[in-house]
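Quick review question:
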């Protein structure tokens, strides 16, 4: 029962909220819901990614023969400093394997591969591990919309692949930590996908890789992005309209 879970909060003098702003269904699987009282109202919204999705579909666009890789800033992400220090000797091998995968996709599927740069990445001619591949900065949403397929590890931008119903090719590598790989397999399982190990690129079933399980995509959307039936409006507009009712 989302609306009321008995807790000790009221005995501590903690007043329950009048509203809970919730995104997907899983957003209520959190400890803060212990503060919900019988009169607390849940205002179903969505993840902020959905606002960017709404902005994107309002613009003209078309699907091109492209595949987009969701850059993970491997070996440079500030949240992975310990891994970065320990695994620098594996950096070159990782990008060689990654570019071998890109070449395979280009040869087998005929799609040009582009890179959707991580929002925190800053690549230039001296600091570009992707060599001649086009890097698109701050264009992840439109790059996914235009693509035929999305290539990823465990990026949160996979939300956009789900919203645009794009097949996702999940990649892992022996250079990754166990926790990082576990995240990849967990997300892939939610979408009904297997994971390709970049050390084993033989016998890939491309028909399987390009399939979308629409039932699982819809379930993922409802759980983690936007519940079915919630307003198809920007996040701020839903909240503003509710406040006007007070």
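Suggested answer, residue by residue:
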């Amino acid at each position: 029962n989302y609306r009321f879970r008995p807790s000790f909060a009221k005995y501590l003098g903690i007043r329950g909220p009048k509203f809970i702003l919730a995104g997907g269904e899983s957003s209520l699987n959190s400890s803060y819901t212990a503060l919900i009282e019988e009169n607390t109202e849940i205002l179903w919204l969505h993840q902020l990614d959905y606002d960017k999705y709404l902005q994107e579909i309002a613009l003209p666009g078309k699907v091109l023969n492209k595949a987009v890789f969701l850059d993970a800033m491997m070996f440079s992400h500030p949240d992975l400093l310990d891994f970065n220090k320990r695994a620098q000797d594996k950096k070159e091998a990782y990008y060689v394997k990654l570019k071998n995968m890109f070449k395979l996709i280009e040869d087998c599927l005929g799609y040009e591969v582009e890179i959707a740069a991580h929002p925190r990445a800053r690549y230039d001619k001296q600091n570009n591990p992707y060599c001649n591949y086009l890097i698109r900065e701050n264009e992840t949403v439109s790059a996914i919309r235009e693509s035929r397929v999305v290539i990823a590890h465990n990026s949160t931008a996979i939300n956009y692949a789900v919203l645009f119903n794009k097949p996702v090719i999940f990649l892992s590598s022996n250079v990754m930590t166990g926790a990082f790989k576990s995240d990849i397999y967990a997300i892939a399982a939610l979408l009904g996908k297997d994971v390709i190990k970049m050390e084993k690129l033989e016998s890939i079933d491309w028909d399987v890789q390009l399939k979308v399980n629409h039932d699982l995509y819809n379930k993922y959307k409802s759980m983690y992005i936007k519940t079915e039936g919630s307003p198809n409006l920007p996040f701020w507009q839903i909240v503003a309209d509710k406040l006007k009712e007070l």
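Why it works: Residues 91-109 form the longest helix (19 residues). The CA atoms of residues 2 and 28 lie 7 Å apart.
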